[in-house]
């Protein structure tokens, strides 16, 4: 698939992000998207063809592969990349709405349409919560689907139509496990960045609101 749209989205939302948000964009773009495109796709490209069982029973190898890999690692990683990036569309759409509103009314309604305040702040906070939720959900999903984050060299399968318990071998297990750990580490890093940005924005605008109220009382 083409990742051009996702790259454009990340570049677009970068204009409206805080400093922490820009670090998140850099991590997603460099350590996740580029690693996925350049390296990870090749590692899992022929995972089904390279999955071998010590039996010639028709259908046995297919059902065993489906049992141990209900969803391909690489497809699940691609879905995760898409899901954690799409909440940023909320921010882009909100800014576009502001700019379109000013254009139709032909007057300045906002000091800066892309400045994070008011309704845009709420949209931005919601996008951060959604991104964090998706990251956590996919980590849990990976863990549940594959019984942890390890890729075994040998798995034993006794599912019909296999005639008995057969040994099945996974190709490049160490390499796959390294990239699986890399995936989990970058996901955790993104969660930390999202929570840090969320805390920063809430703290910043709480202080701002408090100072406004304090100034009004003084006057």
UniProtKB/TrEMBL annotation:
<keyword id="KW-0303">Gap junction</keyword>
<feature type="transmembrane region" description="Helical">
    <location>
        <begin position="118"/>
        <end position="143"/>
    </location>
</feature>
<feature type="transmembrane region" description="Helical">
    <location>
        <begin position="20"/>
        <end position="39"/>
    </location>
</feature>
<protein>
    <recommendedName>
        <fullName>Gap junction protein</fullName>
    </recommendedName>
</protein>
<dbReference type="InterPro" id="IPR019570">
    <property type="entry name" value="Connexin_CCC"/>
</dbReference>
<feature type="transmembrane region" description="Helical">
    <location>
        <begin position="77"/>
        <end position="97"/>
    </location>
</feature>
<comment type="similarity">
    <text>Belongs to the connexin family.</text>
</comment>
<dbReference type="InterPro" id="IPR017990">
    <property type="entry name" value="Connexin_CS"/>
</dbReference>
<dbReference type="GO" id="GO:0007267">
    <property type="term" value="P:cell-cell signaling"/>
</dbReference>
<keyword id="KW-1133">Transmembrane helix</keyword>
<dbReference type="InterPro" id="IPR038359">
    <property type="entry name" value="Connexin_N_sf"/>
</dbReference>
<feature type="transmembrane region" description="Helical">
    <location>
        <begin position="178"/>
        <end position="203"/>
    </location>
</feature>
<keyword id="KW-0472">Membrane</keyword>
<dbReference type="InterPro" id="IPR000500">
    <property type="entry name" value="Connexin"/>
</dbReference>
<keyword id="KW-0965">Cell junction</keyword>
<keyword id="KW-1003">Cell membrane</keyword>
<feature type="domain" description="Connexin cysteine-rich">
    <location>
        <begin position="134"/>
        <end position="201"/>
    </location>
</feature>
<feature type="domain" description="Connexin N-terminal">
    <location>
        <begin position="42"/>
        <end position="75"/>
    </location>
</feature>
<keyword id="KW-0812">Transmembrane</keyword>
<dbReference type="Pfam" id="PF00029">
    <property type="entry name" value="Connexin"/>
</dbReference>
<dbReference type="InterPro" id="IPR013092">
    <property type="entry name" value="Connexin_N"/>
</dbReference>
<dbReference type="GO" id="GO:0005243">
    <property type="term" value="F:gap junction channel activity"/>
</dbReference>
<comment type="function">
    <text>One gap junction consists of a cluster of closely packed pairs of transmembrane channels, the connexons, through which materials of low MW diffuse from one cell to a neighboring cell.</text>
</comment>
<comment type="subunit">
    <text>A connexon is composed of a hexamer of connexins.</text>
</comment>
<dbReference type="GO" id="GO:0005922">
    <property type="term" value="C:connexin complex"/>
</dbReference>
């Amino acid at each position: 698939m083409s990742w051009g749209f996702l790259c454009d989205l990340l570049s677009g939302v970068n204009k409206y992000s805080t400093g922490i948000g820009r670090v998140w964009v850099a991590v997603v773009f460099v350590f996740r998207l580029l690693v996925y495109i350049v390296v990870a796709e090749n590692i899992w490209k022929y995972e089904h063809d390279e999955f071998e069982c010590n039996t010639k029973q028709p259908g046995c190898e297919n059902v065993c592969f489906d049992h141990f890999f209900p969803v391909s690692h690489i497809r699940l990683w691609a879905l995760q990349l898409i899901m954690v990036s799409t909440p940023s569309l909320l921010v882009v759409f909100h800014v576009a709405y502001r700019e379109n509103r000013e254009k139709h009314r032909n007057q300045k309604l906002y000091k800066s349409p892309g400045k994070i305040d008011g309704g845009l702040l709420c949209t931005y906070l919601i996008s951060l919560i959604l991104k964090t939720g998706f990251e956590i959900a996919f980590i849990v999903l990976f863990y549940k689907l594959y019984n942890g984050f390890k890729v075994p060299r040998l798995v034993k399968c006794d599912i019909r139509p296999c005639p008995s318990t057969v040994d099945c071998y996974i190709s490049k297990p160490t390499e796959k496990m390294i990239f699986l750990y890399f995936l989990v580490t970058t996901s955790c890093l993104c969660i930390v960045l999202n929570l840090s940005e969320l805390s920063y924005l809430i703290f910043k605008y709480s202080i701002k609101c408090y100072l406004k109220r304090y100034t009004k009382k003084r006057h």
